[in-house]
Amino acid sequence: LEVSGGAEALSTRLLGLFGEKRAPLAMGLTGLIFGIPVFFDVGIFVLAPIVYAAAKRSGKSVLLYAMP
Q: Which superkingdom, per the lineage (predicted)?
């Protein structure tokens, strides 16, 4: 991305959309968007125990916490 100039183009566009003051928000959203497909399987394994614990504690269905 850096060699092709894509990183510069993305940062210019994001700063144009969000502005200088909201640059951290832009970077956070970008990380979220790009991180989901890359680390999706890791997220499942990390979040699964939390989902089960929340469902057990509340007495509600696991699907209530797992689907959103």
A: Bacteria
The whole domain housing 36 covers 6-66
How many structural domains compose the chain? Answer: 1
CA–CA separation, 15 vs 22, rounded Å? 8
Residues 14 and 30 sit within 8 Å (Cβ to Cβ): yes
Other beta carbons less than 10 A from residue 26's beta carbon: 19
CA-CA distance, 37 to 28, in Å (whole number)? 15
Alpha-carbon distance of 42 to 38, in angstroms, equals: 9
Residue 1 belongs to a domain: no
Q: Is 21 inside a domain boundary?
A: yes
* Banded model confidence at residue 24, pLDDT cuts 50, 70, 90: confident
